[in-house]
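Input:
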Amino acid sequence: MDPFSINGGACVAMVGKNCVAIACDLRLGKQTLTISNNYPKIFSYGDTYLGLTGLATDIETVSTDLRTKVNMYRLREERDIEPETFTNLVSSYLYQRRFGPFYVSPVVAGINNRTGEPFIAAFDCLGCTDYSKDFVVSGTSSNQLFGTCESLWEPGLEPEDLFETISQVLLNSMDRDALAGWGAHVYIITKDQVIKRLLKTRQD
Amino acid sequence: MGGFDFSNYARNAALQKQGFPQPQATSTGTTIVGCIFDGGVVIAADTRATSGEIVAEKNCQKLHYITPNIWCAGAGTAADTEFVTALISSQLELHSLSTGRKPRVVTCMTLVKQHLFRHQGHLGAYLVVAGVDPTGINLFTVHAHGSTDKLPYVTMGSGSLAAMSIFESQWQKNLTQEDAVKLCAEAILAGIFNDLGSGSNVNVGIITAEKTTIKRNFIIPNERVPKEQSYRFPRGTTAILKEQMISRAELRKYITIVDMTGKGTVEGDAMEVDA
Amino acid sequence: MAYLHTANIISDFPPSHHHHTSAGPFVQHQITPYTNNGGTILGITGEDFVVLAGDTRHSEGYSINSRTEKKVHRLGKESSLVLATVGFGADALDVVETMKRAVEDYKFHHNKEMSPPAAAQLLMTILYSNRFFPKYAYCILVGIHAGKGVLYSYDVVGSYSKSGERRAAAGAASDLIVPFLDNQVELKNQYVPYAWEEEIPVQPLPMEKVRRLVKDAFTSATERHIQVGDGLQIITVAASGVGWGVSEEMYELKKD
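Output:
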């Protein structure tokens, strides 16, 4: 079994009109056995959000290591980290472990505080950054997510429409993946507020 | 330099020994080419990045900045091409500052090959190095193990054979800039259409003694046709169990940081010391 | 390959016995009986019709063998049966040829067309008869039965559902297409707006809507899967009166 699919999980981020959304499932498994249905994979670093799928032990190590780094950045700079800067931080942090990588596939979503521009990015476990203007996906359901995103997403969605699209994309993708599901969190991020929602999902 | 952290290496090697396969990195199963002409050099690349059979990115940039007059086209493990070029770019900048001279393409090529040879092929970077410096026009390829070539026209990546078929049938001596660009674009198109690892658009870089021009999406031969219908959902289609709203003003009641250079007040966020 | 290589003559020559493992001095030769030729097929039923589609790219590794190889086949000139196969090209075609012959034989013997449920059972028998050296072919079989569109889908050893299915996808990009179909054909995870106990009822789709879904499913798969592209073949079988009509449409897909 591949380290990326021992614990299972799915994460997706999308760009809308002056907004971004990021969503994840809540399952934590040990191969096919489900251990927990309350294991969120999205972490906030100020206004920037990070989704992590892959090996659960590495999700925890990476998310806390980055928490330390972002807090140190705040102390030095006396300002919040922007999504673009955070993306470079994640990338170089992962590449430092080029020959002993963390088994994680990170996704970043946020709005640039200065320009108000929506921003999303994804990485492979070595830190190669995939900048995208539409959507990014990660996790054991990544194939399903690519298929549904490519079909259902369209440009210029308002926050509430973006919520429906990202939710339907995640829900239908994880229902076709035995290693993901069991609840979902969705964050809709706009310039002046963040809405976090818990979705009603299948419990099998 | 290098400065890699091997602390996960033993754990990962143990996992691999137990039969866990190694992770799949994003690779640029790519077509990249380069060609010299009278007065400069052209490099070009497609824009598809793949992870196995899946297209990870449709419009990525495979032409990497080294110095204003030296650029690299990269194939292989995407993270390695990205970081190797960034590292060499930084070293050349410092070298140029300490010598007070314009960086040379051979210097760049030598730094790259020594770095790659030192890592014994474990860094999967396959590069076309091109540039114009005080010694003249230069074009090289560097393979992951550190071997190099110096040729008037070069191709690399999974689409290298398709691209080379264009060069071998159409290349001639003393090309004009216009013809060299055309030839390189044609070679990339051959890769895009005949190699499954390559696709989407053509990016071109033209380097002469006077200036460098990078033309992103020089040719866009693969635009998606409009969808048959919209799949926008009526609001309220998705069932919600719980909802939490956080306004930014709420988040910022703990710290306010004023950025004096910006236009007006930029407020900071609540400092999170714990998730 | 990627670097200049000189064979190490000292260690490679003369060949020593420890090169042969437990098999002793005998060298075991092998052939690879299967290759993956990529491609995707997709079928959706309506009330009184059924649509079966496939892309026309035939590939091996990173190379394209053909941009015009059709995957959807009628099983007889007078028959409503249509079979699409994907997987290993040679096996996929062999299954189609075997089925075509069986359908023809059936007509000669019984002087009537083979019914879709009978063809479905026969296909299962053919696939299962190769249980220990399977034909590497994923099949979707459709036809008109009692004025209704019917669809059956199979795994490589012949497992299928006798009652048929509303829709199916198989092949390289089936992972990408199936959840889209769940959502748009079966309306999974969609509720009546703000009435979150009440799911949107599933109704048979009109033919035009089905064709639109098929095209969008394939253009999306083409964007994200390297083995899907070049052309799209859509065969529609529609019940009309006591008989049926079969039509074929071809569309262009991206060629990169």
